[in-house]
Structure to design on (293 residues):
């Protein structure tokens, strides 16, 4: 993990527009929100999925590096917009002031817009797989994951759910989109950078990613209840204070923890036919569920 995280950090440092280039304030803010923070879960998943093909067919790490940077830019953009006063109105992210606090709301809005565009720029400037048709499919996968049928749609449902009591299927539907869409895309895109995975294997990987995406949100809700602002680097207890439905508010702490463990087992089961090449994916499922931050 640490090697991939360091590689992504170095690549982002190199690829993002320098702060000295006009418009300087915008480029400085883009670098502020992307560099030096975060677990880089999505690039890690992309790298692990790229390794899941049989020996000799695994993805080129250089291609996965570009993909990982694009995914991290999309993730950072979503966090910047999520923190805005018109959304979740939070002032802390990754242990430092949120973008709109450090800069201003207009800059934060433009940072998110620019990072989303930059992600797609990266995916079109670089060869990510051998088949151009597959690369076009990859662009579509990421676009869907970002839009109204993915993250943006999940955020819309989240905002509309404040003060409501959702059923478990309704809560899962929301988070399959808001949190899970980009996680599923990370696995799908990493897998498509390789040459050795058939449709049945891609389907198993998608099942894995669905479970991991849900588990990630369940654990987030648990940590929001049990952890501290200093540990998480973001304001804890905000969802409860805002009367937002969470897995903990719906199920209680004990049942939410049990659900996370069930999802981890489901994720492992989804990889049963892939053998040893999927070990990093198994490890990441464990990390997502057992993490403390």
């Amino acid at each position: 993990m640490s090697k991939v995280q360091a590689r992504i950090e170095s690549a982002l440092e190199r690829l993002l527009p320098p702060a000295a280039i006009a418009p300087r304030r915008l480029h400085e803010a883009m670098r502020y929100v992307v560099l030096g923070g975060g677990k880089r879960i999505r690039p890690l998943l992309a790298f692990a999925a790229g390794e899941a093909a049989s020996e000799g067919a695994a993805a080129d790490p250089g291609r996965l590096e570009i993909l990982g940077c694009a995914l991290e830019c999309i993730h950072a953009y979503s966090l910047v917009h999520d923190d805005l006063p018109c959304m979740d109105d939070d002032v802390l992210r990754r242990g430092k002031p949120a973008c709109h606090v450090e800069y201003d709301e207009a800059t934060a809005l433009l940072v998110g817009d620019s990072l989303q565009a930059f992600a797609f720029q990266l995916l079109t400037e670089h060869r990510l797989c051998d088949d151009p048709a597959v690369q076009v499919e990859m662009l579509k996968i990421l676009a869907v994951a970002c839009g109204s049928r993915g993250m943006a749609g999940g955020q819309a449902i989240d905002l509309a759910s404040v003060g409501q009591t959702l059923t478990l299927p309704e809560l899962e539907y929301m988070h399959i989109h808001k949190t899970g869409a980009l996680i599923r895309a990370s696995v799908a895109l990493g897998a498509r950078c390789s040459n050795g995975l058939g449709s049945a294997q891609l389907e198993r990987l998608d099942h894995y990613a669905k479970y991991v995406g849900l588990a990630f949100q369940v654990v987030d809700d648990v940590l929001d209840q049990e952890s501290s602002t200093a540990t998480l680097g973001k304001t804890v207890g905000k969802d409860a204070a805002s009367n937002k439905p969470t897995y903990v508010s719906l199920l209680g702490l004990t049942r939410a923890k049990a659900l996370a463990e069930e999802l981890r087992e489901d994720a492992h089961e989804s990889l049963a036919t892939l053998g040893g090449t999927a070990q990093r994916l198994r490890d990441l499922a464990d990390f997502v569920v057992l993490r403390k931050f």
The chain has 16 helices and two strands. The CA atoms of residues 162 and 286 lie 31 Å apart.
